[in-house]
Amino acid sequence: MRAWQLPAGSTGFDKLYQDTLPDLTPGPGEVLIAPRAWSINYRDFAVAAGKYFGGALTEPAVPLSDGAGEVLAVGEGVTDFAPGDRVQGSFFLDWADGPQVMGRALGDGKAPGMLAEQVVLPAQGVVKVADSLSWAEAACMPCAGVTAWNALFEGGRPIGKGSRVLVLGSGGVSLIALQLAKAAGAEVIATSSSDEKLARVLAMGAAHGVNYKAVPDWGAHVAREFGGAHKVVEVGGVGTLQQSMNALASEGEIALIGVLADGDPPHPRQLMMMGGSIRGIFVGSVAMAKKLNKFVDAHQIKPPIGATFGFDEAPAAYAHAWGPDSFGKTVIVRD
């Protein structure tokens, strides 16, 4: 089978190389999958650069957490899946439901990666895809989709009809969150540094757009002009956290996801004055993925794919996803 790999000690996605590896066979409790499409997340760049939580890769590794494909075979004892089923991987292979379980994570350099023509996963880390999605669309769900779902609907302050949701930027998590929130009856406010991208986000259903270069105090602006956000999908990190706190409505929640922007963390006392909270988000469980896919089917949500590349064009896909023209999800499809 063909597979893309990163070498031991990789320092960036420019080190990607394609290799031919032996075909795989599922063992007991395992599922053999032929991925048909994949998508790229910010985390995949950290893995390639050797800056993910586990540090530099210690051996060659197949990258990417997000892929969707067809079951080819199942191992002994597997009853929930059969050849021909349309499935996706779960970002965390061992977090079925309930409280967060930090364990094996797809594409981290130690667990299996998805960017290959075959992958074997434990059955508990496999999820049937939403019936209404194409392969490319389904490949956007395991990390970005589940993260957005967790941010909006899990925890103690789920959104609903009449909620105001603030999404930052035009990446995959933010735009899928926009779609989910709008389907739930929420009012969505979006930020971007690009008026052209804001126009596209407004066309997707955001009620308001704020160019954060033109409005440097965008957090206070959101609170003043729109009444504040009951939920902030915070993909920036500490560099934008103060602005997100400024944007909160009374008893609002910041779903803290990202590490994109560096900076000094704000003082938390501001949260005391408004009953606000910050909840850490690290993707989600298999149960969340199933709820997300059911919701996607019910509301006919199509995740935003900004660009599509062939399997042999994986390095170009990475470059596009890293560049300024990226919008929504960048997807790789099987030739």
TrEMBL record:
Pfam families: ADH_N, ADH_zinc_N
GO molecular function list: oxidoreductase activity
Domain Enoyl reductase (ER): 12-332
Domain of life: Bacteria
InterPro entries, sorted: ADH-like_C, ADH-like_N, ER, GroES-like_sf, NAD(P)-bd_dom_sf, Zinc_ADH-like
Gene3D superfamilies associated with the record: Medium-chain alcohol dehydrogenases, catalytic domain (3.90.180.10), NAD(P)-binding Rossmann-like Domain (3.40.50.720)
Alphabetized PANTHER family for the sequence: PTHR45033, ZINC-TYPE ALCOHOL DEHYDROGENASE-LIKE PROTEIN C1773.06C
Name the record gives this protein: Zinc-binding dehydrogenase
Source species taxonomy: Bacteria, Pseudomonadati, Pseudomonadota, Alphaproteobacteria, Sphingomonadales
